[in-house]
Amino acid sequence: MAPRRVAVYGLLIAASAAGTVLLNAQVYLHPSVKEENLAVLTNDYQDYWYLASPALAQYVADNTSPDARIYNLGFQSELYFYSDRRSPTRYMFDHLFVADGGLVEAALRDLEEKPPVLIIDSARYSPARAYGYDRAPFDRFLAQRYQYLGKLYYADVYRLKESPTARFHRKVISLGEAS
What does pTM read for this prediction? Predict the structure, then answer.
């Protein structure tokens, strides 16, 4: 009789465990909120940018020092917050340039004075606007002073080119430290 009772209890425990797993499977096998958002919202570029900004900002944070400055040419000012990095200019998004084209030159002066380590160009992929601003000065600035790293999520990423003086200075410091 005892072996039969053990078998019945074992069967009850197995059935309870299976029932628990089946009842909770919806919770554990359910897609994450992020996965659901990506599946539903990625048809709209603004929603995609909103969802991808934390990941892009994590790349920025991982590839710059905490005191580094970055610049987002576009409308994604949340990148500064998410990456915990500062902008070298008060013109933190490009819509201002539509209202006053002279602000492009002011922003470029700020970028020349305090060159950001990274420039994230999300404006290039913005949908066409009925009116815009002349981005040619930014394109020249990028070509002269920055190295294109590639497209990441919704933006082109550029890194400040190292000047020969900075390279020489770093070699002197490292040689001095080695002795």
Answer: 0.67
